[in-house]
């Protein structure tokens, strides 16, 4: 990841290298994200039928009817197979993105902690020094707002039936995300040290 950023920095200033690097990683992940969203959409369409099967399976388990439970489990499996759905595919995008973006984040953090001297003048506008936290908290606030808007849009779409009962969580999530981002900024200097 460090060589990737250094290559981009040979072409652009640090702020541009970080932004372009993030954009390239996002675009690389896009086909996987689209595939996961399609699978999730198909799973949501099957949710009513799957809920009925699940309820019947729970009843069979409660009365101890293992044959009926096995038959219903097979029906559930065939429902996915018939609709060409693999539920695990909906988890592939997060499972692939987490290590990738965590590595990106940790690399940038290590560079700031080391510090890489060119990061001190590699920013622009109000955040010239990329080795210290944003003094005005604009970047963490923008990140938290974008997460909040994404969650709000997701909850308000008709595709997520169960999400309507969880939509009240978006404002606390925004506040918590903001607090976490600010704490992460200060943890650079307080208690987290990395070596390159």
Give your account of this protein's structure.
The chain has helices at residues 2-11, 14-63, 66-82, 89-113, 138-156, 170-190. By secondary structure, the chain is mainly α. The chain is elongated. The protein starts with a helix and ends in a 6-residue tail after the last helix.
Quick take:
The protein is mainly α.
Q: What is the element layout, followed by pairings?
A:
Layout: H1 2-11, H2 14-63, H3 66-82, H4 89-113, H5 138-156, H6 170-190
Helix pairs in contact: 1-2, 2-3, 2-4, 5-6
Supply Rg. 23 Å
Query: Helix and strand string, N-terminal first?
Result: HHHHHH
Unreliable segments of 5+ consecutive residues: 160-165, 188-196
Overall mean pLDDT stands at: 78
Distance between the termini: 12 Å
Helical element count?
6
Number of strands: 0
Strand content: under 5%
Would you tell me the structural class of the helices and strands? Answer: mainly alpha
Q: What form results from the Cα inertia axes?
A: elongated
Largest sheet: none
Range of helix content: over 70%
List its salient traits.
single chain, 196 residues, mainly alpha, disordered C terminus
């Amino acid at each position: 990841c460090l060589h990737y950023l250094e290559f981009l920095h040979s072409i652009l200033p640090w702020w541009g290298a970080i932004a372009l690097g993030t954009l390239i990683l996002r675009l690389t992940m896009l086909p996987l994200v689209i595939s996961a969203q399609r699978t999730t959409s198909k799973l949501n369409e099957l949710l009513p039928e799957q809920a009925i099967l699940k309820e019947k399976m729970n009843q069979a388990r409660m009365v101890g009817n293992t044959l009926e439970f096995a038959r219903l489990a097979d029906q559930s499996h065939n429902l996915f197979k018939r609709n060409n759905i693999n539920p695990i595919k909906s988890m592939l995008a997060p499972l692939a993105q987490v290590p990738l973006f965590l590595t990106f984040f940790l690399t940038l953090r290590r560079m700031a902690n080391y510090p890489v001297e060119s990061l001190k003048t590699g920013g622009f506008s109000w955040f010239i020094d990329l080795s210290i936290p944003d003094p005005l908290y604009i970047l963490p606030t923008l990140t938290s707002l974008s997460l909040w808007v994404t969650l709000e849009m997701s909850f308000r779409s008709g595709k997520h039936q169960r999400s309507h009962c969880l939509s009240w969580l978006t404002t606390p999530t925004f506040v918590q995300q903001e607090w976490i981002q600010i704490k992460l900024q200060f943890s650079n200097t307080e208690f987290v040290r990395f070596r390159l």
